[in-house]
């Protein structure tokens, strides 16, 4: 969703602001703007549409200034327009600010300000904060900010310029991410570390409730009580190339192709390949805790939820622990049942690539309030979900830039494989030898994924041949049904084609009415115990005219006219990951056939930080 950048130093801020915003484009936005402090006031440039349009504006009317802020806006309060685009100002243009998140009580605050005669130029909640700061201004911006923050309800990351302190950025965060980068005689601010990678990897990660006063030479943190707080800077290991396309046409394809590497990196972090053991120091359960574990509740959104569904199957089958996978936006409002009020042995697990998804964070907070121990999978160090969880397991996927999640999903499922095997071993469900064999099997994944990637021309040809198809059903049973859900989501989000996932046996209870000769039915069939059943369902849809694709174990008796993308030599627990790679490639090449904006699909944002 929205992106924030800020710079204060001795050189022009403009280059960083524009480059930083470009690096945040992947988050989704519909307008962009920058403001810099100049001797005669704020210089402001805004554009509705892409950053390139903003860049053109700046080229036409260059701006100077060594301290500035920028923003990409994903419209919530008010349509995409120059008026609603950030930065926003107070009436006298003494204060400029950019904001991510939502000020929930903005209507009430706005009404109060209007009674005092303040007029507004935009429909946004953000402008209310700029006007509030001006109305309540007292002594300096830090003092004023402390006062005004107490009036705001909701989530926010704010970066503020005050013409009275022309080299200073005032930052505040509450439930919305912000990072501060340390440069040579300058400081950078961004909502996401990707904007900083080209400039610095030495960053502060402000905590909720922090105010940061950032000048070229220092960053000083304060709490809401106005007292100084100590914060330590950390080094981010992601490198610049991870956030660039490196010769690929799209980030999505690049990230699909990075999967052998990120799976290998994640395996190396959690598994000692010298003796095929799990590195205990990175695991969330001690042997005692594993034995006492009675129930696990997983909550997540979208693709991460599908990883959670995989997690449920893996943990139940390997470790025999009852597991629920919940959509986080539902879980957060669900009735609390008696059992949850006494959470002894009941553990919660949030799964999130960004670590910032609002619903997943709310689900985690609810679980903590209920007294559960809260675990998290996160791809981003220092993200809100990672900080608030009691224990974090990191996916080592590196920055995921394409809006459609691919490599993060595979690493999330991999973490579930490792967690399930660890729990199974600690609970005495599998022997040392069985654990070693399973870990060796996981170690084969990078090679197996690579061999699918090497055949991607076959998937591209199929997508080209079927470009006229408008309805695509993915069917499967058990874990294959989860892979179907993820395959259908991937396809619809990047190609905008109608695609649905159904449990294979459920089709004939209604949905089979939609099947005709213009429908493609893709069956995911990797689970040996129900293979024959899924194959029968394929025959049923074939009889109704659908054309067929099978991703999985090739049938002993070939189905006439059915294309097969084979998965061989993979057991029930790793085959779904391999099937997913085919489905990701199919989604990518289909979207390409349709000329879609693959990395930034319409209406979507990478990190959904609002409800
Ligand atoms: C789909 C996709 C989304 C995310 C979802 C959760 O390709 O990327 O469905 O999976 O918005 O995001 P995170 O994992 O950041 O919590």
Automatic annotation (TrEMBL):
Catalyzes the first step in hexosamine metabolism, converting fructose-6P into glucosamine-6P using glutamine as a nitrogen source. It is found in: Cytoplasm. It catalyses: D-fructose 6-phosphate + L-glutamine = D-glucosamine 6-phosphate + L-glutamate. The keyword Amino-acid biosynthesis does not apply. GO terms for biological process: carbohydrate metabolic process; fructose 6-phosphate metabolic process; protein N-linked glycosylation; UDP-N-acetylglucosamine metabolic process. It is an enzyme of class 2 (transferase). This is Glutamine--fructose-6-phosphate aminotransferase [isomerizing]. It comes from Candidatus Ruthenibacterium merdavium. GO terms for cellular component: cytosol. One of its GO terms (molecular function) is carbohydrate derivative binding. PROSITE patterns: GATASE_TYPE_2, SIS. SUPFAM superfamilies: N-terminal nucleophile aminohydrolases (Ntn hydrolases), SIS domain. Residues 285-429, 458-601 form the SIS domain.
């Amino acid at each position: 969703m929205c992106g924030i950048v800020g710079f204060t130093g001795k050189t022009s801020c403009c280059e960083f602001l524009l480059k930083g915003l470009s690096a945040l484009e992947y988050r989704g936005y519909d307008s962009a703007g920058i403001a810099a402090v100049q001797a005669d006031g704020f210089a402001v440039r805004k554009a509705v549409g892409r950053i390139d349009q903003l860049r053109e504006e700046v080229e036409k009317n260059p701006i100077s200034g060594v301290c500035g802020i920028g923003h990409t806006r994903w419209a919530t309060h008010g349509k995409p327009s120059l008026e609603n685009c950030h930065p926003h100002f107070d009436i006298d243009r003494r204060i400029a600010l950019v904001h991510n998140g939502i000020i929930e009580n903005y209507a009430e605050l706005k009404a109060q300000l209007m009674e005092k005669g303040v007029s507004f130029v935009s429909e946004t909640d953000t402008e209310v904060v700029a006007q509030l700061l001006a109305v309540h201004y007292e002594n300096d911006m830090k003092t004023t900010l402390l006062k005004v923050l107490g009036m705001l309800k909701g989530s926010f990351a704010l970066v503020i310029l005050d013409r009275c302190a022309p080299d200073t950025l005032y930052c505040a965060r509450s439930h919305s991410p912000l990072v501060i980068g340390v440069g040579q005689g300058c400081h950078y601010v961004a909502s996401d570390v990707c904007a900083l990678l080209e400039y610095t990897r030495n960053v502060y990660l402000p905590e909720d409730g922090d105010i940061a006063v950032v000048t070229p030479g220092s960053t000083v943190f304060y709490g809401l009580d106005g007292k100084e707080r100590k914060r330590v800077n950390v080094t981010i290991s992601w490198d610049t190339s991870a956030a660039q396309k490196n010769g690929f046409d799209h980030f999505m394809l690049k990230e699909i192709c990075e999967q052998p590497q990120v799976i290998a990196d994640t395996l190396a972090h959690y598994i000692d390949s010298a003796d095929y053991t799990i590195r205990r120091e990175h695991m969330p359960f001690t042997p005692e805790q594993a034995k006492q574990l009675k129930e696990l509740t997983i909550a997540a959104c979208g693709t991460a939820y599908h990883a959670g569904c995989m997690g449920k199957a893996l943990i139940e089958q390997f470790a025999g622990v009852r597991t629920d996978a919940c959509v986080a936006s539902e879980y957060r409002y669900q009735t609390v049942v008696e059992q949850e009020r006494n959470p002894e042995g009941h553990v919660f697990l949030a799964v999130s690539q960004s670590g910032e998804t609002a619903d997943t964070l709310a689900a985690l907070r609810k679980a903590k309030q209920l007294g559960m121990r809260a675990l998290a999978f996160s791809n981003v160090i220092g993200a809100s979900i990672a900080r608030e969880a009691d224990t974090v397991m990191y996916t080592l996927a590196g920055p995921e830039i394409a809006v459609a999640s691919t490599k993060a999903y595979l690493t999330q499922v991999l973490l579930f494989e490792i967690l399930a095997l660890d729990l199974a071993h600690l609970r005495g469900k599998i022997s040392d030898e069985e654990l070693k064999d399973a870990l060796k099997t996981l170690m084969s994944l990078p090679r197996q994924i690579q061999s699918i990637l090497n055949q991607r021309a076959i998937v591209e040809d199929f997508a080209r041949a079927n470009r006229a198809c408008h309805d695509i059903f993915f069917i499967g049973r058990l874990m294959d049904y989860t892979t179907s859900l993820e395959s259908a989501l991937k396809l619809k989000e990047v190609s905008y084609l109608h695609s649905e996932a159904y449990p294979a046996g459920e089709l004939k209870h209604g949905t089979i009415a939609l099947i005709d000769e213009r429908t493609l039915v893709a069956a995911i069939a990797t689970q040996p115990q129900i293979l024959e059943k899924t194959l029968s369902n394929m025959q049923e849809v074939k009889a109704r005219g659908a054309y067929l694709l099978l991703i999985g174990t090739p049938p002993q008796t070939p189905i006439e006219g059915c294309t097969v993308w084979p998965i061989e030599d993979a057991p029930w627990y790793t085959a779904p990951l391999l099937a997913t790679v085919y489905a990701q490639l199919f989604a990518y090449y289909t979207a390409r056939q349709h000329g879609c904006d693959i990395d930034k699909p319409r209406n979507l944002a990478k990190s959904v930080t609002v409800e």
